[in-house]
Amino acid sequence: MSAPGSHAPVPAKAAGSDPGADSPLAAFGAGLDRSLARGLRRLTESALGPYQSAIVRIGFSLTWLLYLLREFPHRDELYGPDSPWGLDLARRIIAGSHAFSALMWSDSRGWFELVYALAIVASATLLLGWRTRTSALLFMLGVLSLQNRSVFMGDGGDNVVHIMAIYLVFTRCGQVWSLDSRRAAKAARTDADADAGGDDGAIDQARASLDPVGVALWTVLGAALIAATLAGKLTAGWGLIFWGFWGGQAVWWAVRRYAPGEPRTVLDIIANIVHNGAMLVIAAEVCLIYSTAGWYKIQGSRWQDGTALYYPLHLDDFTPWPALSHLLAGSDIMVMLITYGTVIVQVGFPFTLFNRRVKNVLLCVMIVEHASIAILLGLPFFSLAMIAADAVFLPTGFLLWAGGRAAGLLGPKRPAAEAVTPDVIPGGGATQPAVGPPPPSTVS
């Protein structure tokens, strides 16, 4: 027993200290928390891969635009009233699949010509990045309307365009290399000038711009949507989707005009999350296309014995350059190497994503392979579609270099103040460009 007035022995650790603070488990937990916080910031504060999404947008819109222009003389036989695939057969398939096609609304030639023309216009505006949100939605409607009208037209490239047209609607693919990004940069400079001048009236006027073109476009599309709904042309599911997009545009515009603070930040976070999720789905879709194609080839006896390439090189429908095709088919070693190489590349590509250098090398091989398919087998639009899909994996540094070279060829170099520079994020890569907020219009 202690003597009166004596003190009890003090423990080695101070009272209230965390006994697990120095443990490896606590250090691991703290590191995990920091990693999760950084990941959440990257997913919510920025739209990842702005240059990759832009090149995917440009690639697919260009592919579909060139296809529509090339088939313009034959459009009626492919998708119009004179198509061998009659309107009644198309309606039977759509009734079972619940797919969308505006060409099912009427069998008149005038309506078909209007839909085909609007598909061309939407492809061109998406290519230029003008009112990208609306252009992406109209681009999707044009693709679905024509392809679902005659489901047996086209090839594998059409299927890729069909899928990617839907995914592009959910991306913020106009942040760079678009007319929208130029307009956003101009608006940001106007805000900066107003802030520097200290003119509160100019600031309010700049930030509350009506954007008459965007409002007019939104009104016209709303009137068309009302007419289609009242006429009973839309199913419940598609009607809900279209009305949701149209109403979302109105909410975006209203928040930017009347509540540019925290509500706008919340909408930006939601848009970034949706964009990043869509980009992940696009990347996964490309991997799925290659892996399924490769594993199906492995099951074929002609791919197993290395002779699969020989046969299409002797088909008249796939030999635009017969002399070149027959020359290649005459080399047994080349046929075997290309056959086995195609299978290896397609099966192995998804696994190369864990190594950047190997992925880039294999990506170059696949792009060369698709270019060869366009020349040897006469499938240019299939090749363009696959190259556009592959572009989601292109490194940002290469895209910036290619964009700079293209800008130098197309026109004089822009001043440094107008140059688009990405915000570098921890861990490498680039986020959305540092040119101020996204395009100001709700219908951009």
Characterise the protein shown here.
The protein is mostly helical and 444 residues long. It is 66% helix and 2% strand. The chain has helices at residues 24-45, 50-70, 75-79, 87-97, 109-128, 132-149, 156-168, 179-197, 200-207, 212-230, 236-258, 262-298, 301-304, 322-329, 332-348, 356-376, 380-390, 396-410, and strands spanning 422-424, 430-433. A two-stranded antiparallel ribbon has the order 1-2. It is globular. Mean pLDDT is 85; it is low at 201-206 and 415-444.
Helix-strand blueprint:
Blueprint: H1 24-45, H2 50-70, H3 75-79, H4 87-97, H5 109-128, H6 132-149, H7 156-168, H8 179-197, H9 200-207, H10 212-230, H11 236-258, H12 262-298, H13 301-304, H14 322-329, H15 332-348, H16 356-376, H17 380-390, H18 396-410, E1 422-424, E2 430-433
Antiparallel strand pairs: 1-2
Brief summary:
The protein contains 18 helices and two strands. The protein is mostly helical.
Number of helices: 18
Q: Regions with pLDDT < 50 over 5+ consecutive residues?
A: 201-206, 415-444
Amount of helix? 55-70%
The coarse overall form would be: globular
Compute the number of strand runs: 2
Round the Cα radius of gyration to an integer and report it.
Answer: 28 Å
Question: What spatial order of strands do you see in the largest sheet?
Answer: 1-2
- Cα distance, first to last residue? 83 Å
